[in-house]
Amino acid sequence: MRISGLAAATGVSVATLKYYLREGLLPPGRATSRTQASYDDTHVSRVRLVRALTESAGLSLGAVRDVLAALDDPPASRHDLLGSAHRALVAAEGGVPSEDEEWDAARHRAVELVAERGWCDDPLLVDRLAEQLRAAGAAGVDLPGDYLRSLAAAADVVAAADLTTAGPEPEAALRQVVLGTLLTDPIVLTLRRMAQVRASQEASGV
Amino acid sequence: MRISGLAAATGVSVATLKYYLREGLLPPGRATSRTQASYDDTHVSRVRLVRALTESAGLSLGAVRDVLAALDDPPASRHDLLGSAHRALVAAEGGVPSEDEEWDAARHRAVELVAERGWCDDPLLVDRLAEQLRAAGAAGVDLPGDYLRSLAAAADVVAAADLTTAGPEPEAALRQVVLGTLLTDPIVLTLRRMAQVRASQEASGV
């Protein structure tokens, strides 16, 4: 199909498709003349993926590029594969902690929680958690230790489920871990709101 | 303190503070002359809150305005209060579903999941879940029913913990539900990644 057909099939404008092509987010089509190219179903899937990552998962185009690079060039062993999936996720989301007076206390809490769960103390993830704890504290939101332990227990339930959806085939597993996590993050948060409404109705005796 | 003092206390530039004032995100200071005003600790907390909502929770300034309006004008009864907290959350996050051929199937799955959990079928939340299921499906991410049921069970754990942190005093409870949810959303997602790393290490026998 021509670029206008790709636009029709994906609901993405021709101008946006040309932008994806220039930025390397979409591989070039097969040239059919000096000014025209032909696109196929792999292009349709790639455009849908870029849209899902930007719109649903809310990633920047730079972050989408990192995730696509990990998907397009997966490492050979399954162990390396899951490692690089997690690195791509963490790197794509970025964020540098701004250290201040509350930072040390927040980082201490993050390290303690991770040690208590027996989780790995990847400094990128621990720093990110510390920064998020610091931001909540600065906004006046109180997060008692028991509360954080409940969130951590729920995270173990989600992660166990996440792992069962990643099948044995390495490339498919990488795709499922990276995309599955990014695209189900919003689902996790919506389910939290639904469960909150139910929990507060129960508490009010409705 | 003068506006330069407020900037120093919060780490936010004078230009940004003036923007918050113009947009009504920060109440005016007490006028001390025709061109100067004096700010106090309530302004420091408000600036920190606006920063946390924009930077950590990733809300737009329009969405921050909706959340602040709910916080500044809480309804009288506790039941109305939790209801308006959830409406402020859902409205602040917005999003209109784009209906297409996969929409009906996704919405049917969302309705089924909600009915199975005995959750309330608030159409705003059900539509949002349906849109997120559709987006994951369009990107080629498979979400089996058992997987969604595990996510929903984890959401119940989080929501039960969320409710225990909201104390009996209505204004504080509203603040904790709205801000607590927005500011701990990123924490929930970080914990998920930490738990995933651990789960994949266990699966690889590391």
TrEMBL record, chains A, B:
Pfam family, one: MerR_1
InterPro entries linked: DNA-bd_dom_put_sf (IPR009061), MerR-type_HTH_dom (IPR000551), MerR_fam (IPR047057)
GO molecular function list: DNA binding
Record carries keyword Transport: no
The keyword DNA-binding belongs to this UniProt entry's keyword annotation: yes
This protein's UniProt keywords: DNA-binding
Domain HTH merR-type per the UniProt entry, residue ranges: 1-70
CDD domains per UniProt: HTH_MerR-like_sg5
Protein name (record): DNA-binding transcriptional MerR regulator
Organism annotation: Isoptericola halotolerans
Upper lineage: Bacteria, Bacillati, Actinomycetota, Actinomycetes, Micrococcales
